[in-house]
UniProtKB/TrEMBL annotation:
This is Ion-translocating oxidoreductase complex subunit B. Coiled coil: none annotated. One of its GO terms (molecular function) is electron transfer activity. Its EC number is 7.-.-.-. HAMAP family: RsxB_RnfB. InterPro entries: 4Fe-4S_dom, 4Fe4S_Fe-S-bd, 4Fe4S_Fe_S_CS, Elect_transpt_cplx_RnfB/RsxB, RnfB/RsxB_Proteobac, RnfB_subfamily. Pfam families: Fer4_21, FeS. The gene is rnfB. Binds 3 [4Fe-4S] clusters.
Amino acid sequence: MLAFSIVTYIIIAIVVIALIFGAILGYSSVKLKVEEDPIVEKIDAILPQSQCGQCGYPGCKPYAEAIANGDVITKCVPGGQPLVVKIADLLGVDVPTMDGVEEPETKVAFIHEDLCIGCTKCIQACPVDAIVGSNKAMHTIIADFCTGCELCVAPCPTNCIEMIKPKKTARQWNWQFDPNLVIPIVNTTEIQQKKVIGGGADE
């Protein structure tokens, strides 16, 4: 009976100590919390999150922090010039000129399926889940998801992955209306045919 009482007191003491330390840690986490720089979060939100390291940093968040501390905004290869424009607009600075700097060419990964052995190493390396496949089965790339980070190229044991220029699709086509376009319009209720030239009508 005495031994049971001692064990009970020990358990109660451990619980009390745990509660005290938990309260101290909880208070410290709130009181000593380091506030994130909101501009870093905003920059990180528009980066492609490919974590490819082509900017010279281990991921998008460290690059966002570097930009907030004054680093250049032209280092993200997957984002390209459109991303540079977005970051410049966010920071309220002029878009840097690309004089003397070759603008990175947009490319996506392509798998030569006859060489693919289904090792899944490229799938494990892809940070944006742009590769579809399974073990010992042929893999393929979802071009719309691929950011061109090239992280899947090196792990491939058969060198079946190549970076190529993406093909033009209806989604990428420039559908802007040509103001000089002549569109004939036939009205079955009228004898004369009308033509729309630009924004006006010509009878």
